[in-house]
UniProtKB/TrEMBL annotation:
Signal sequence residues: none
A UniProt-annotated Pfam family: DDE_Tnp_IS1595
Species for this entry: Operophtera brumata
ISXO2-like transposase domain residues: 21-102
Protein's recorded name: ISXO2-like transposase domain-containing protein
């Protein structure tokens, strides 16, 4: 019998960065998707947000499932990500509303690959 479930290692380490984005698309009905990609890699994960909710209660378990503790995580300013440091991650944020530089924060945080 074929095994249809593929087991993946977690993304990231203490030396690596994983970028995140939660998206649904503009003006389109659909489900919220959490995307994760590891820097210097094509290793990508996508998860559908349960019940179409993107709260910390939904996102943190998905992140813990796919990302190793101690990894640096880059996100936007979505409030649900604010608790990541309390869950053992290093957290950098980029403000996409910053008219001076909406893609890269002053400290180098970016989420452009996802």
């Amino acid at each position: 019998m074929w095994n249809l479930v593929r087991v993946y290692r977690q993304l990231g380490t203490r030396e690596q960065v994983v970028a995140f984005a939660e998206e649904r698309g503009r003006r389109v009905e659909g489900h919220w998707i959490l995307g994760m990609i590891q820097d210097q890699s094509e290793d990508l994960r996508l998860e559908v947000c349960k019940d179409n909710v993107r709260s910390a209660e939904v996102l943190v378990p998905l992140i813990k499932k796919h990302v190793a503790e101690g990894t640096t995580i880059h996100t936007d300013f979505w409030r649900a990500f604010d608790c990541l440091e309390g869950h053992g991650f290093i957290h950098g944020k980029v403000n996409h509303s910053d008219s001076n530089n909406p893609f890269v924060a002053e400290d180098g945080t970016r989420t452009q690959r996802i």
